[in-house]
Amino acid sequence: MRKLSHDEISQNRSTLENIELVKKLPVIVLLNSIRSSYNVGSIFRTSDGAMIEKLILCGYTPHPPFENSKEGNKDVLKTALGSTKSVKWDYIKNPIDAIKNLREKGIRICALELTENSKPYYLTEQYDFPMCLVVGNEISGVSQEVLNLCDYSIEIPQYGIKQSLNVAVAYGIAIFELRKIFDNKQTITQRQ
């Protein structure tokens, strides 16, 4: 076994010039009041890896600088490592407005949160796409006000003494499982 060089890996990757041609995962991710710019940057990078449709940053979630503007948080860029250019994103202060807008477009709203009715993340169904995955604050999670607008919630089962994972880690687990479920849907459809 030989480790691939950076050049070898890059040969099979998309570029900013052809990123619009890449098949996107039909998931819009809404980050609501994430505190850490490093978590946000990590979520950008993971979003590029899973090639999601879009990130919507809400509340006091730090956002990258807007194009041709100094407004924004440069620390997000440090962890994102360029993925703020490959992942579409927007900042909408009020998450309720963003969710209502997505619902009007027929997008199902799913919280990544422990609730009385949450199901394991790997039980997401094909009909759940397109979806908006709502990810909440590192300490308080998804607010009840936002949960009231969600169609359902998914959780990552915990087997140890802690009740949750770091928000960027939890997001990574969930989004790649959603990518797997969606890709399996595409494979089944192509076979038929």
Describe this structure in words.
The N and C termini lie far apart (37 Å). The model has no long low-confidence stretch (mean pLDDT 88). The chain has a single domain, classed as Alpha/beta knot, CATH 3.40.1280.10. The longest helix is centred in the last third of the chain and has 25 residues, at 167-191. 36% of the residues lie in helices and 18% in strands. With 192 residues, the chain is α/β, with parallel strands linked by helices.
SSE blueprint:
Layout: H1 6-11, E1 25-32, H2 37-50, E2 52-58, H3 74-80, H4 83-86, E3 89-91, H5 95-104, E4 108-112, E5 119-120, E6 131-135, H6 144-147, E7 152-155, H7 167-191
Parallel strand pairs: 1-2, 1-6, 2-3, 4-6, 4-7, 5-7
What labels would you give this structure?
Alpha/beta knot; 192 residues; alpha/beta
Share of β-strand residues? 15-25%
Order of helices and strands: HEHEHHEHEEEHEH
Per DSSP E runs of 2 or more residues, the count of β-strands stands at: 7
Q: What is the helix content?
A: 25-40%
- Domain count: the total is 1
First CA to last CA: what distance?
A: 37 Å
Helix/strand/pairing class, anyone?
alpha/beta
User: What value does the Rg take, in angstroms?
Assistant: 17 Å
General form: globular
Question: What's the short version?
Answer:
The chain has 192 residues and is an alpha/beta fold. The protein has helices spanning 6-11, 37-50, 74-80, 83-86, 95-104, 144-147, 167-191, and strands at residues 25-32, 52-58, 89-91, 108-112, 119-120, 131-135, 152-155.
